[in-house]
Design brief:
3 helices
Length: about 100
Amino acid sequence: MEVQLGKAEKLYRKWSEHIPREAHLQEVTTFLDTYFPGMWKQKLSSHIVVRCSRLAVLADYRPYGEITVPVKGGQRVKGFYIGNLLRAIRVLEELGEEDDEQGC
């Protein structure tokens, strides 16, 4: 797990500096496992749904606190959706820590 955390942190820093045009699905799932553990599911190979109840209070994520991330060709994620994930992490940081059994 410590290795994954390191990879995810590197991706976060790299993507925060410059959002890529596309990213490999494996990179995105590593990122999600660290920043949204247990809060995402991949629907077949077409898209990933991230659900965080704390985001539900914000208009962009209503009504369930969801972020949908389409997977292009079952292999890649467009940079626009990576940007959405980064923005959600920043919003959660601004909201601060909250004791929640889901961790979000």
